């Protein structure tokens, strides 16, 4: 029982990061119907930027802020640069360009900073609190849960309760109609990419201290799991990304704890396959496709 | 808006797509408080003309002026110039609520929820404001599309087949609404196939055929024009 409680708690903390990264994939999908395969590579550049600012300033928090800003700027640069030049009538060119971007960014990081893992200390203790003799969440896990929860709540409120969010949703669901109503669709797409990459950078920043450290490929595994989460939840559904993220996080933790860590990716793939067979659009997919 | 100019002035507009001339030397105007109907067989160029007004297609020759100034080339500029349009296929955001649909154009021009609520009330949509637009019956969805066009309080309203798909009672109600809009001093340009509706609401009718204006005048004048009967209305129509 003790072990179960510990594994579920740890799974929720990891699931929050997965949900956050999956949220970033959902945002960019909703913005212009693209799966950004360069999401992890762009986010890891932002994490390097955060680490550099932390090294100079001595403040993890300042570094984290700089990383999120860098993520937003990288999102704008990627969308206004290579991704905007890609033909959109078929998804393949976008995927190929994104993979090319991944290769360039990861090779560039390896050349600039070396291929070794750079340890990244957490800003708070990673020793779990012990409640009734059971180790549960650490202060850092709590920070992750709170930050991820607040950011996802802010995104949800922003999209549903603000004028800008309304324009983002209108531009995403029916760009031509939105344009006729005066929405600056191009600007909204860029903004969507900025929000997406800022969120992805934050997820990366929260993950790296719990892993081996920072490395050009440090977020590749996160991308794979978060992509599965986004599909399981429904690519159109922010709520789906949250719930599927927590579900997958707990699943990975339980499989790793009770079986073996190497079986965790298989468990995620099995869950993904099951969901695709039963509900191909994802558990929380919207009923309507995007209009022209 | 400049009061001394027509709200919409189309002067010698010609639009060609490759070798096909969709509009040829089309000229007419819409003034304040006036409802002008654009009719013609399928393929006559009606929607192309709407698109030329909205800047979606660029005329090869001729000019489109809004209140005396060249029509803005962007949709945003057009909305800010006081022009609004409905779409033939409604173009609602089906997963958004009715209120959110009406708030989208306000989000770009400034305006609050109170104005959106007042527009919904005017069109009898208050009770469904919180429902997803895609779940409403077709006549109500048509009214949502009209509310979305009206909420920015445009001086010139372009209605693309507003009566299409509606039953007799809904068409009567729509005719009253369109009459009220012109009574408020707005200019209304509508494209419509429903001839009875057109004859009821329009002050003037412009008839297009193969991209050319073949007749223009009051409904009675147009109704008796042999060229119009031959091209569009048919013997015994209306």
UniProtKB/TrEMBL annotation, chain A:
InterPro entries per record:
ABC_transp_permease (IPR001851), BCAA_transport_permease (IPR052157)
Entry keyword set: Amino-acid transport, Cell membrane, Membrane, Transmembrane, Transmembrane helix, Transport
Membrane topology recorded in Swiss-Prot or TrEMBL: Multi-pass membrane protein
Q: Tell me where it resides.
A: Cell membrane
Q: Show the Pfam families listed in the entry.
A: BPD_transp_2 (PF02653)
Q: Does the keyword Transmembrane apply?
A: yes
The cross-references to CDD domains, in alphabetical order and at most eight, read: TM_PBP1_LivH_like (cd06582)
Looking at the record's lineage, which domain of life comes first?
A: Bacteria
Transmembrane segment boundaries: 6-27, 34-53, 59-78, 90-114, 134-159, 188-208, 266-287
The primary site where this protein sits is: membrane
Return the similarity comment: Belongs to the binding-protein-dependent transport system permease family. LivHM subfamily.
For this entry, the protein name equals Branched-chain amino acid ABC transporter permease
Q: Origin organism of this chain?
A: Myceligenerans salitolerans
From TrEMBL, chain B:
What the entry lists under CDD domains is as follows:
ABC_Mj1267_LivG_branched
Domain called ABC transporter: residue spans: 8-235
Which superkingdom heads the taxonomic lineage of this protein's source? Bacteria
Which molecular function terms from Gene Ontology are attached?
ATP binding
Q: Which UniProt keywords apply?
A: ATP-binding, Nucleotide-binding, Transport
Note the Pfam families from the entry.
ABC_tran, BCA_ABC_TP_C
Q: Does the keyword Electron transport apply?
A: no
Q: Which SUPFAM superfamilies match?
A: P-loop containing nucleoside triphosphate hydrolases
Keyword Nucleotide-binding assigned to the entry: answer is yes
Q: Which InterPro entries match?
A: AAA+_ATPase, ABC_AA/LPS_Transport, ABC_transporter-like_ATP-bd, BCA_ABC_TP_C, P-loop_NTPase
State the protein's name: ABC transporter ATP-binding protein
UniProt source species: Myceligenerans salitolerans
Top-down, what is the taxonomic lineage of the species of origin? Bacteria, Bacillati, Actinomycetota, Actinomycetes, Micrococcales
């Amino acid at each position: 029982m003790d072990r179960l409680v510990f594994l579920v708690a740890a799974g929720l903390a990891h699931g929050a990061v997965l949900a956050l990264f999956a949220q970033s994939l959902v945002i960019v999908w909703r913005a212009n119907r693209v799966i950004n395969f360069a999401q992890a590579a762009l986010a890891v550049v932002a994490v390097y930027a955060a680490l550099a600012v932390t090294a100079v300033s001595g403040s993890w928090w300042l570094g984290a802020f700089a990383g999120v800003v860098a993520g937003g700027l990288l999102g704008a640069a990627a969308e206004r640069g290579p991704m905007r030049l890609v033909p959109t009538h078929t998804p393949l060119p976008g995927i190929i360009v994104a993979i090319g971007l991944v290769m360039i960014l990861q090779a560039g990081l390896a050349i600039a900073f070396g291929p070794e893992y750079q340890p990244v200390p957490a800003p708070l203790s990673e020793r779990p609190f012990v409640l009734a003799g059971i180790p549960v969440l650490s202060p850092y896990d709590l920070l992750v849960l709170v930050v991820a929860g607040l950011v996802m709540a802010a995104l949800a409120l922003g999209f549903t309760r603000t004028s800008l969010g309304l324009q983002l949703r209108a531009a995403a669901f029916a760009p031509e109609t939105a344009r006729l109503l005066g929405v600056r669709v191009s600007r909204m797409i860029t903004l969507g990419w900025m929000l997406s990459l800022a969120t992805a950078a934050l997820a990366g920043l929260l993950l790296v201290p719990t892993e081996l450290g920072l490395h050009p490929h440090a977020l590749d595994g996160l991308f794979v799991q978060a992509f599965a989460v986004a599909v399981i939840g429904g690519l159109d559904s922010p709520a789906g990304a949250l719930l599927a993220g927590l579900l997958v996080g707990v699943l990975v933790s339980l499989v790793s704890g009770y079986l073996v860590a190497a079986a965790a990716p298989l468990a995620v793939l099995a869950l993904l396959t099951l969901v695709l067979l039963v509900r191909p659009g994802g558990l929380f997919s919207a009923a309507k496709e995007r209009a022209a | 808006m400049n009061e001394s100019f027509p709200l919409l002035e189309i002067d010698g507009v010609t639009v060609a797509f490759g070798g096909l001339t969709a509009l040829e030397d089309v000229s007419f105007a819409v003034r304040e408080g006036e409802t002008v109907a654009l009719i013609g067989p399928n393929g006559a160029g009606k929607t192309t003309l709407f698109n030329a007004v909205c800047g979606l297609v660029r005329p090869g020759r001729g000019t489109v002026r809004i209140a005396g100034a060249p029509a803005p080339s962007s949709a945003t500029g057009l909305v800010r110039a006081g022009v609004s349009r409905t779409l033939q296929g409604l173009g609602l955001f089906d997963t958004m609520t009715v209120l959110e649909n009406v708030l989208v154009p306000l989000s770009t021009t400034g305006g609050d929820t109170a104005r959106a609520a007042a527009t919904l009330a005017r069109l009898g949509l208050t009770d469904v404001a919180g429902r997803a637009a895609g779940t409403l019956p077709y006549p109500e969805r048509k009214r949502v599309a009209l509310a979305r066009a009206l909420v920015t309080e445009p001086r010139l309203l372009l209605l693309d087949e507003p009566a299409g798909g509606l039953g007799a009672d809904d068409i009567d109600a729509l005719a009253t609404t369109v009459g009220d809009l012109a009574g408020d001093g707005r200019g209304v340009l509508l494209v419509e196939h429903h001839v009875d509706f057109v004859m009821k609401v329009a002050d003037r009718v412009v008839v297009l055929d193969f991209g050319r204006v073949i007749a223009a005048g009051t409904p009675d004048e147009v109704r008796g024009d042999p060229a119009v009967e031959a091209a569009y209305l048919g013997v015994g129509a209306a």
